[in-house]
Amino acid sequence: MSGGQRSSAATTDPGGLGFRPLYRQVRELLVQRIADGLWAPGQPIPSEPEIASELGVSQGTVRKALDEMAGENLVVRRQGRGTYVARHDDARILFQFFRIVPDSGAKEFPDSRLIEVAGEAADEETAAALGLAPGAAVVRLERVRSLAGEVCIAERIVVPAALFPGIAERELPNNLYELYAAQFGVVVGRASEKLRAVAAGAREAELLGVAAGTPLLRVDRTAFSIDGKLAEWRVSWCRTERVHYVSDLR
Amino acid sequence: MSGGQRSSAATTDPGGLGFRPLYRQVRELLVQRIADGLWAPGQPIPSEPEIASELGVSQGTVRKALDEMAGENLVVRRQGRGTYVARHDDARILFQFFRIVPDSGAKEFPDSRLIEVAGEAADEETAAALGLAPGAAVVRLERVRSLAGEVCIAERIVVPAALFPGIAERELPNNLYELYAAQFGVVVGRASEKLRAVAAGAREAELLGVAAGTPLLRVDRTAFSIDGKLAEWRVSWCRTERVHYVSDLR
DNA sequence: CAGTGGTCTAGACCACATG
DNA sequence: ATGTGGTCTAGACCACTGT
Q1: Would an 8 Å CB–CB cutoff place B238 in contact with chain A?
Q2: pTM for the complete prediction?
C-alpha cells in the first residue's frame, strides 16, 4: 500500500451506476455518530490520525470528510486544539438561522415572550408542512419576540410530538434549537424559508400592537435535522419599520 | 525538494502577523486574471499541471485554489473536459441571484419591460448606497418584470456611470449581469439583499396594477464585482400573492 | 487512446494551543 | 515538549470526455 489507491468498495464501478468516494463514506459514518449522539455537541471528537487508523484510511481522506462537515457547520475545527461537534449556541443561531437585523446596529439575539403552548392534532396544512398524516400529534407554540426592546415578531412554531416527547410540559428557553439538540437529540442542520409581504390579520395585529392591514413580512420556515427528518414548521410575522431581513447571495 | 514544504514567502512567519498560504496567493493571481479579462467567461483555463508548472507549485496547490474558486462560482469544473471561467448565463443568474419563485411551479427567468433609462447625478441616498460622492454620475433604469405571464416586480436599478461608460445608449437585455461582464468587464460575484414589507406607493401601485397601500415585498440589493467594487444598487418591489422569495439557511 | 479533473495515499514541515 | 489541525509536495490510480 505504498502510494496509489486502496482497492476498496469505492474503486472500479463496472455497473456505471453510483460511484461513492471513500471520503463520503467516511463522512456519512461520522455524521451518523453525531446524529446518534455518540459524540455530543460541544465535545471534541478523536483526532484525525486516530480516526484514520480506526477506519483504515489515510489521514488525508479523514481530513476531506471533516472539511466537508465543517463547511456544513456540523463540526468546528480549531487549529492546535482539535475538532469539536458544533453546538447550537446563541452565536451560531444568530449567524446561521436568524436573519432579522435592526436597520442600524449589530445583530443581537431577540427576547421571547411565550403566549401559548399546546398539544393538538395536525390539521391539513400543518400535516402537509411537516410531512405527517392529518391528525398526527403535534405541539404548537406561540410567542412574541422583541429586538432592541421593541416587539417586532409574532411566531407560531409547530413540531411533531413524536420527535419531541413531553416538550409541551417543559420550560421553554429562548433558543429552541439548543433544546432540540440537547434534550431530544434532534440536531437542526438546515432550513428553508419562504418570504412574503402580507397584511396583518386581527391576531397578528393584536400581538404586535399594529393596525390590522399593516404590511408585515411573513417568513415561513421548514427546518430539517442533520439526518434529513422534517423537524419544525415555523411561521413568523414581522414588522419591518425598523428591522429588515438579510440575505447574502454568493 | 522531495516531499516536505517549499521554502517560499508563505513559510516561517516570525513577525506573527499575516500568514498567507501559498494556495491563497495562487487563487488571488488566478482571480486577477479573470477580473482583468485575460481569461474570458465561458472559456477554458489552462489545465492544472500547466498552471502548476508555470507557477512552480504542485498540482495539489493549484487544485486547492481552483476548488475554492469553484465554491465561489468563479469557475466551473468539468471532469474529463477542463476548468472554465463561469458565465452569467440565465441558468446561473436564476440559481445564484434570483430568489423569487412562483408558489406552485419551477423557477423561471422573468420577462422584463423597460420603462425608463436615464443618466443623472446621484442624490444623497444613491451616493451612500453606491459608495460615491453626492452628485457623481450614475445611470438609473426602471423596469417591470413578469413571472408566468403576470406582472409582479417593479425594479429600479442604479449603477455608477464610471464603471459602465455609454450603457444608457445601449440596447438593454433581460439579463443585465451578462451584459456587465461581457461588455464592461464588471463581473458580479456576490450581492447582499435587505428585505422589508412595505405598503405600495402611488408609483409602485401604478406600475404593478395594484391599489396603493397593498403590501409589497421590497428587496434592496447591493451587488459587488469579484474584485470588490460596488457595482449596482437595485430596489425591487414585488407582489407576493402568487410568488415568494426563497432563502436557504445552512 | 490521451488528456482532463477527482480520489487516495504517504510523508514532511508549519502554525497554533496547551502543558 | 507534545499533540492538534493546516499546508505542501509527489506520485499512483480512477472516472469521465473527447478523438
Answers
A1: yes
A2: 0.93
